[in-house]
Amino acid sequence: MVGEDTRLWRQVAHEAARRPRQVDNHLDVRGVAVEVAHVPRLAAGLAARQTASLEWAMLPFRCCADITPASCARAKMPGGSSREMAMRKWLFAGFFATILSGPAAAWWDGGHMQIAAIAYDQLTPTARAKADALIRLNPQYASWVAGVPAGDAAQVAFVRASTWADDIKTPELGHTEAGDTPGNPEAGRNIGYYDNLMHKYWHFKDIGFSTDGTPVEDADPVNALTEIQALTQGLSPASGLPDDVRSYDLVWLLHLVGDAHQPLHATARFSHAQQHGDQGGNLAKVIPASGETIALHAYWDRLLGGYTTPAGAIRDALEDKNTKLPPADSALAGVSDPSVWFDESQRLAQNVAYADPVLSCTQACELDRAYETKARQTARAQAALAGARLAHLINEALK
Ligand SMILES: [Zn+2]
After folding, report:
1. pLDDT digits (tens, 9 = 90+) for 203-224
2. Are the beta carbons of 162 and 135 closer than 8 angstroms?
3. CA 375 to chain centre
4. Which stretches does DSSP call E strand in the chain?
5. Ligand 1 mean position to 251 CA, how many Å?
6. What pTM, to 2 d.p., does this model score?
7. 148 CB neighbour count, 10 Å cutoff
8. Domains and CATH numbers, the chain
């Protein structure tokens, strides 16, 4: 059965690879989720890898129980899922969670949802109840919990909500990037779900560095740090904002706290060859042991797993002894100032992500075992930390 499914996934990936490539600029690839709209990028990786595992072959279909792009799109439309499809979706989720016995390979969906799963597990009963109520106000809520047993719905919705900030990068949710730049006066607005801007620049803060004396440019004026601060303020009842805005704030925070802990969402390397920066490693190429040539940024984004369902992420993060995340360092978990998070991530980027062999490469760098082991350990520790800090942030805001 697995063999047949693998063939089907490969066929879908092959079809996707024939589509025109989506815009592949800095903003597009930063924090981009595994979405149907981004299938070409993933499928290219699949083709390069040749020995695509089922997990890899499933990457493009985060939220879909069915196996074709068309049905995937249908399943994602609010109210567009029949009860039968919803049930299949849930059953499929359990199926995948069962067969994905190996460690999930990112701050692609797998990473964000694992971080949210950790956070949900550490919420106080009061904060959890308030968070549950706010999550229910997201326009996609019904589709997130369709077919999910009632007892699991709140946790599943919370975990699934962590990727909504990536979902809105696809046209089907009606958001736009027209005129949506970090210098726009509207860039940092907080108006809730009426806001149809994608705000792609909310996903990172480039704290630049250079090893060859190239001048470093400033980060965007509106960035992941300024937004985590603003949205945290908005989430508190003291803000006086209506609940639908506070829901929007919470859903964004579920995502951005995860991004803050991906080292390459906190920096860009400036050099003689790339005087305006390498876009958080998007312009640097690496060749991991799996053999494909990919952007350094994408390599890190996928370290915690690619495609998964909320059920799969919950299992990976909390339940499966082979994959569950390590406990966060308790002293570090208590650090609540997000500017410190970004400084830490920037240092990790310099010391780990851009360490040799990446540091001394000018073309695609072949990664060695020591680099890859350290990268994976760093990613897992950062995810655990992100989950604990996210829980702390919500517990404080919703006490
Ligand atoms: Zn992101």
Report:
1. 999 999 999 999 999 999 999 9
2. no
3. 17
4. 209-210, 269-270, 285-287, 294-295, 365-366
5. 12
6. 0.76
7. 21
8. 105-397 (1.10.575.10)
